[in-house]
Design a protein that fits this description.
The complex is a heterodimer of chains A (243) and B (552).
Chain A lengths: L1 H7 L3 H25 L15 H12 L14 H7 L34 H9 L1 H4 L21 H10 L6 H5 L1 H8 L7 H8 L17 H11 L6 H4 L1 H5 L1
Chain B lengths: L6 H24 L5 H23 L15 H27 L14 H33 L8 H22 L12 H23 L8 H20 L2 E3 L7 E3 L3 H36 L6 H14 L15 H13 L1 H14 L4 H6 L1 H23 L2 H7 L3 H30 L8 H34 L11 H38 L19 H5 L4
Antiparallel strand pairs in B: 1-2
Helix pairs in contact in B: 1-2, 2-5, 3-4, 3-17, 4-5, 4-8, 4-15, 5-6, 6-7, 7-8, 7-9, 8-13, 8-15, 9-11, 11-13, 13-15, 13-16, 15-16, 15-17, 16-17
Classes of the chains: A mainly alpha (243), B mainly alpha (552).
Chain lengths: 243, 552
């Protein structure tokens, strides 16, 4: 064996090919089957896609690096299920490009945060976390309330999402900007289109408390309020259902 | 610095710079009111600065052919300086964000100054800015000496070094503007990723072209590691960054993968960025600088073969241990755990090989802080790889995951292993590169050593404590069978450890500043210049004998 190596290490190309070969095996065995084995991701017929406003909010979440301190993955452990809610299923992040499972909980997990607190609570908390919880170490995101959300390119965002596999329809793409506005302005003529395209259960509210204005706060709160609520599958599955 | 470029190389340099400038211009025009425009402008300015620099030396006389009898070390020198600048900057940002967890209102109500945006600035600056520059700089140096061949040309090493730094600057400024893919340790967006790929291909080409001209029949073990580092990082980088941009004028892209597949790809990447950037690359450094500084041959040739192929093979399976108890199928988790445990063998073989190399030179370890940096690095490498295998065990991971223990583990590796081996190597190489008989102040090297060691130990102990307390509090039940502590309770319990961590980081930062000052003064102080010799004679050259000598 060492004699073989004695010869191999005299060949730059041999060494190069050897490294590529040896290093490729692990990834091929572990990753490739995840795309082909059907059980990897559960079926959830009721699963819906993010609305344009929620997607924009998700992008704010990504931009601000929220994932550095908050996970979105409840593990299959008793204390986690009791603290946060039903453990996460793969299907719940099926439309998450990229996933935001996270790796650190400086703050709590957010996979089941949707609907747990009121919009007002989220706005006050994001505006200055220490107003709500004096010992919080989260940064204040007060500028979100003052920053108008950019919506003109949301159609392009939905199109790119469709290119990577999220089933947005032509109708959704064409109305992306209007839907973003309508979801945060319940009294506007654009509000009906949102529930038409994304389902009756979609939250249509002035998330930041200011109906006429569409801010980044609207988007982020809309996103947080839908976390864990795109499908009911987790509540119905296996051990979660018996609890 | 770039005075050795030939006429033809100066012309190529101008062409390349104009091409880069054009790309910047196109990006700037294509982006309407997207932050991408700022990056387009930044690329344009960088190219323009390069053009001015090249023009300023354009009509200088051509270098004579005598240069070809010597190694080409100008890019290495510049790379070392860049590495130290990134080190001080990255450590500063790291300590700053550590204090943000103590005093969260230090963000001036500005987006760029908040924890979430600055955290990747810290990780990218230290891992890729400091670590990457040190790897590129030392790899040029080691490659030439162990091959007894000069770099193939004088332009491509500069292209790689400066192009890589352009990538780092794009990355760091991008995070502050909110441009991020959110994939940990792969945050830069699509255009920066494409650019890095171009740089990386040229980097490996330098390796192959130099090796093709080598006068040593055998490729030295340090080069195996540097080659694995370049090759595997390329594979990981390409696969993990596959994405569809929103438009050509938008910085934003969406990952090709989603959910569970994306999670697995990300941690396959993430864990092997640790393996092939932070381990393989720096083992390459270790396999050259430990023996030359100690004046001893590598203890065992066979152990280095076993550990090299073990690391290259096993590591690629281990990423799924980041996803224990998640929605990732259990068989993948089990594979990840199993291979993580097996990894201990090649890892400890490497650490043992380094420490046993010091046999017969322990008096030098006592007296020479530079060698002591490298000895401590090998010890930390052993500790961290043991801890890594331990944390990969599913039941241990259920406690440690999501807590500060992970952060402590990473820093044991990053501060204890990566930074220490780098500082040791830099202190070895700087007097040789600038032809001095020693560092400006050996005493300051000693000061740096103790600051770095104290900082790393304080940091790691603080995070071990906080992580384990956190993990235990989250899973503690009271007698009535309900959870004993709220999340907020655990947050309050962290406070003293967050302060201790920030102090540990501060010590490490001060050490880094002392080191940067010492290196700068070594370069500036000309009094102790050694007489220039034709063929770099004063440097010990690792010949074939040392490579092939088995320790037995």
């Amino acid at each position: 064996m060492f004699g073989l190596h004695y010869r191999l290490e005299r060949k730059a190309i041999g060494l190069t090919l050897g490294i590529i070969l040896v290093a490729s095996i692990g990834g091929l065995v572990e990753i490739a089957p995840l795309f082909t084995i059907h059980q990897t991701v559960e079926d959830a017929p009721d699963m819906r896609v993010y609305t344009p406003l929620e997607l924009a909010g998700r992008n704010v979440y990504i931009r601000e690096g929220c994932y550095a301190c908050h996970s979105q993955m409840v593990r299959t452990l008793r204390d986690e299920v009791e603290r946060y809610g039903p453990y996460s299923l793969a299907v719940e992040s099926k439309y998450d490009h990229p996933m935001l499972w996270g790796s650190k909980r400086t703050g709590p997990d957010l996979a089941r945060i949707g609907g747990k607190y009121s919009d007002e609570w989220h706005v006050a908390h994001l505006n200055n976390p220490r107003d709500v919880l004096s010992v919080s170490v989260m940064p204040a995101y007060s500028w979100l309330l003052k920053t108008t959300l950019r919506t003109d390119d949301l159609g392009a965002h939905l199109k790119a999402q469709r290119a990577v596999g999220v089933p947005y329809t032509d109708d959704m793409i064409a109305n992306a900007s209007k839907d973003a506005y309508g979801q945060a302005a319940p009294d506007s003529p654009y509000a009906d289109g949102v529930t038409q395209r994304y389902g009756k259960a979609t939250n249509v509210r002035a998330f930041d408390g200011k109906p006429g204005e569409l801010t980044e706060m609207d988007a982020l709160v809309a996103y947080l309020q839908v976390l864990g609520r795109l499908t009911d599958a987790a509540h119905k599955s296996g051990a979660n259902a018996t609890r | 610095m770039i005075g050795q470029l030939t006429k033809a190389e100066r012309q190529y340099a101008l062409l390349i710079l104009l091409g880069i400038g054009l790309c910047g211009l196109i990006l700037g025009i294509a982006s309407k009111d997207d932050p991408l425009g700022i990056h387009g402008a930044l690329i344009g300015i960088a190219a323009l600065a390069g053009v001015f620099k090249v023009i300023s030396i354009y009509y200088d006389p051509e270098p004579d052919d005598e240069r070809l009898t010597r190694y080409y070390d100008d890019p290495t020198k510049f790379g070392i300086i860049l590495a130290m600048i990134w080190a001080v900057f990255g450590l500063f940002i790291g300590d700053w964000v550590a204090w943000l967890l103590v005093k969260p209102d230090f963000t001036f109500d500005a987006g760029w100054a908040s924890f979430g945006r600055l955290r990747p600035v810290h990780t990218t600056s230290v891992l890729f800015g400091f670590g990457g520059n040190a790897l590129i700089a030392t790899s040029y140096y080691v490659l030439q000496r162990t091959s007894r061949a000069r770099l193939p040309d004088q332009l491509s090493p500069w292209f790689v070094l400066l192009g890589y730094n352009l990538f780092c600057v794009l990355a760091v400024t991008g995070y502050m503007m909110g441009i991020t893919q959110s994939k940990e340790y792969a945050e830069p967006e699509w255009y920066a990723d494409i650019w890095l790929l171009v740089v990386w291909v040229v980097y490996f080409a330098i390796y192959l072209r130099t090796l093709a001209r080598r006068k040593e029949p055998h490729i030295y073990v340090a080069n195996w590691y540097y080659m694995a580092f370049i090759l595997v990082i390329a594979i990981l980088h390409i696969v993990n960054n596959l994405a569809v941009p929103v438009s050509f004028g938008s910085a934003k892209s969406y990952s090709l993968f989603s959910g569970v597949q994306d999670a697995m790809t990300e941690w396959w990447y993430g864990h092997n960025a640790v393996a092939f950037f932070l381990t393989a690359g720096f083992l390459g450094m270790m396999y050259y600088f430990v023996p030359v500084r100690a004046g001893r041959p590598i203890y065992s040739y066979r152990m280095s073969i076993i550990s090299f192929w073990g690391i290259t093979f096993f590591y690629m399976w281990a990423g799924s241990h980041h996803l224990h108890y998640t929605a990732l199928p259990q068989w993948v988790q089990t594979l990840g755990m199993t291979f993580s445990l097996m990894l201990l063998i090649p890892s400890w073989a490497s650490a043992a090989n380094a420490l046993l190399t010091l046999n017969g030179a322990w008096d030098k370890v006592r007296d020479d802080a530079t060698l002591r940096f490298m000895m401590v690095a090998a010890v930390f490498y052993g500790i961290t790889t043991f801890e890594g295998s331990f944390l990969a065990i599913r039941s241990v991971n259920s406690l440690s995951h999501y807590t500060d223990w992970t952060v402590g583990h990473v820093h044991a590796g990053a501060l204890g292993w990566v930074a220490m081996i780098t500082f040791g190597s830099i202190y070895t190489i700087v007097p040789w590169l600038w032809k001095r008989d020693r560092m400006y102040s050996p005493r300051l090297v000693e000061v740096h050593f103790w600051l770095a060691l104290a900082g790393a130990v304080v940091y790691v102990f603080a995070m071990w404590n906080s992580g384990i307390i956190q993990g235990l509090m989250w899973r503690t039940y009271n007698e009535s069978g309900t959870l004993a502590y709220s999340f907020v309770d655990s947050l309050i319990a962290m406070r003293p450890y967050y302060i201790a961590r920030a102090i540990g980081g501060l010590l490490f930062l001060i050490g880094g500043i002392v080191g940067a000052y010492n290196i700068w003064m070594t370069i500036k102080t000309e009094s102790k210049v050694l007489p220039e010799s034709g063929a770099d004679a004063p440097e010990p050259v690792l010949g074939g004998e040392a490579v092939l000598q088995p320790g037995e």
